[in-house]
Amino acid sequence: MKKNITIGGQAGQGINKVSQIFSNVLGKYGYFTFNYRDYASLIRGGHNFNTLAFSDEAIESHDSKIDVLIALDNRSIKTHKQALKKNGILVTGEQFKDMGRNLNIALAGTLTKIFGIPFSFLENEIKFQFKNSTESIKAGRIGYNSTNTSEKLPKLKNSPTILSGSQAISIGAINSGLQLYVAYPMTPATNAMHELAKNQIKNNLMVFQAENEISAISMAIGASFAGTKTMTGTSGGGFDLMGETLSLQGIAEIPLTVYLSSRAGPGTGVPTYTAQSDLDIALRAGHGEAPRVVVAPGNPTELIEKTSEALLLAEKFRTLSIILSDKHLAESEFSSTQKPKKTPIFKINRLLPGKNLVKNSSYESDVFGNSTESYTITEKNADARIKKYNDIKKYIQKNFEMIKIHGNKKSKNLIIGWGSTSGAIKDAIKNLDAKFLQVIYMKPLSQEIKKEISKADNIILVECNVTGQLGRLIREKTGIKIDNRLLKYNGRPFHTNELKNLIGEIL
What we know:
This protein has 507 residues and is α/β, with parallel strands linked by helices. The chain has helices at 15-28, 74-80, 103-114, 119-129, 134-145, 165-175, 190-197, 213-225, 236-241, 243-252, 279-284, 300-317, 327-331, 375-399, 421-428, 448-455, 469-478, 496-506; strands at residues 2-11, 32-38, 45-55, 66-71, 84-92, 161-164, 180-183, 206-209, 230-234, 256-262, 292-295, 320-326, 333-336, 403-407, 413-418, 435-439, 441-443, 458-463, 484-487.
């Protein structure tokens, strides 16, 4: 069972609150939810919408066809009515136009009644969210009594936790004892900064907003040099500005972890929409050759785990770790009963200034930290950096999941994808004869990928970019070209039903 509800209106009308309240009600009632946010780069006006999908089993994506449309304005009706199923339900905000700021609570009440959930579940959620809840409960009751029950959902025993990707990355960082997060705001990375800033004193953490991305990464590498567990975060254009310091890290060997949350480019592009088009820059940004780690989780549980792993690897090997995400993963809300693996705890054991004499610079250096142009030392240091990459690779292969296999593990039909697209792929193949190879570590790349490809008769690459960047990486590392490619690059993620049909046509 899977239902999809679209809530549309103008920016500032509170559509996020409707989906948040009802999503929490569904979670308390035992259902799994996935909440997709679609919004323009506007503070007020325009057209925004959320699609809240829910199911009696775990889901990580939404469909293009909807069961209920909540329209707060006429534009939402015009935009989404074609997607409403034949027996779908249309609810307008017109009937609650006098509710003012309680409109979203009334609409949450309407949804609660449509699906036959007892009012007490909504009432408890209102009491939890609002201090002066008497008026809010009254508004919820008005919405609840305004409609009839369309389908009475049975209560389930699941107890899922709801997290966005931004919340998850902050949890992973805090679990690892992060002490400083420095960043300049840039959608969609900004929300991670906000999440980390919420409880700074409680978590013994400082969040600092720099004046730009060059300052942010320079401060981050300077604080790391002084022995602080540090992280910075940005999106595509900001990451471009960080390129020189990424290269500095390679030769100075100061631990550095960067959160890169992609959006659609090039340039400013469509800044509030999603894309998987920054894999190439994550792998290669910065001049010269130096080791780095690039990890691309696919859901909040993996983000918690892989953020901790990235911080550990940066410190243990004095390397660059990049956590690669995107708008879809960062801002969507997932519910799950999965528990993250135990966080690997690490201490800073290297030499630190103030306690030792430590010299780092952007120059090639001898064993004493003095700059040199010696060809023998230059070659020796380059060899040492490559050896370090091989050591990193061996460590990750031994200790962490580099890939995951989902679906029918005996199938000869292989889907390959990564990052936020993983959710739609997992949901799309539930009733198909296919298995899904999810690539998590992009650098180093698992040798198991070539083995899995060799066992398959049909191979399909699924990515949200125009050039198939993971496909190119696999071809570079294995020599294997994947001809069947499903690529989406209009700033929107794959819908479950859309992807299922496309995969089905190829198979």
